[in-house]
């Protein structure tokens, strides 16, 4: 039921942005429309590339490799065409910082190779691909085309719409912009810490499991199989919490530009939250099937927003 509801939400979201554009506004001027057309060309080429290369290589992480790179390109295109105003340059620099960090984190997992179509595929795609819902193969091909390639490329573009909607604003860089920049920077740091803690935990676990050892043979906290230390003791997905918050913070730049507290460029941040709801549910389904104590972890620790409680009950 939850999966069906999520699919309906994702489907309706394809119509959400144009509806909000005409219902709420503001309308884009000629320069903004020209910039949007350019961004859509890049987005369309990326979607076609991800589908063709993904199908030929049987590696469906092509979009994963571009996820951290495309927003950098989009925001700098907007900044250059918008006259390199202070607000747009700050946005582009912050997005570049975010993208460089995420690219590094993905690269050290083996995602990038000289053979650009190769590299480590996200393990979740393999598990999802083998589910009965995607048999026979043509069902997965359609899923790859419409969700992984088209929808996710459109979503990544949508997250940068606050920059597009702000590019012609006469309002100077102000207090709201400063707050948005501080929040975005802070959440990038939070996500960096979370990913570093996760990397350190699993690297140590992998080291301890050498020589044919099993989880029961290694010490705590690694024997649980999943991380409950640091930020991961206060949130089951502190990296996801930070990631969602980064793009909500980016939306605040449109408020600082004087567009209004609510405008249609919020759609990217909202759809990203919906995507992470589905992604985290699937990831937790896998973790719960692998690790006996994960169900207890789910009961005691917040899913996204960090609370001051841990699996062992310590503050």
Write a brief caption for the model.
This protein is mostly helical and 315 residues long. The chain has twelve helices and no strands.
Explain the overall architecture.
It is a single chain. This protein is an all-alpha fold and 315 residues long. The chain has one domain. Helix content is 67%, strand content 0%. The chain has helices at residues 2-23, 30-57, 62-67, 70-81, 86-107, 123-129, 137-159, 161-166, 175-208, 238-256, 267-290, 294-300.
Number of helices: 12
Which shape, going by the Cα principal axes? Answer: globular
Question: Separation of termini?
Answer: 36 Å
Q: What is the H/E string?
A: HHHHHHHHHHHH
**Global Rg:** 21 Å
Which class best fits the helix and strand makeup? mainly alpha
How many structural domains?
1
| Stretches with pLDDT under 50, minimum 5 residues | none
Work out the number of β strands: 0
Content of β-strand: under 5%
The profile of the biggest β sheet is: none
Helix content: 55-70%
Could you tell me the mean pLDDT?
Answer: 91
Task: Using brief descriptors, characterize the structure shown.
mainly alpha; 315 residues; 67% helix; 12 helices
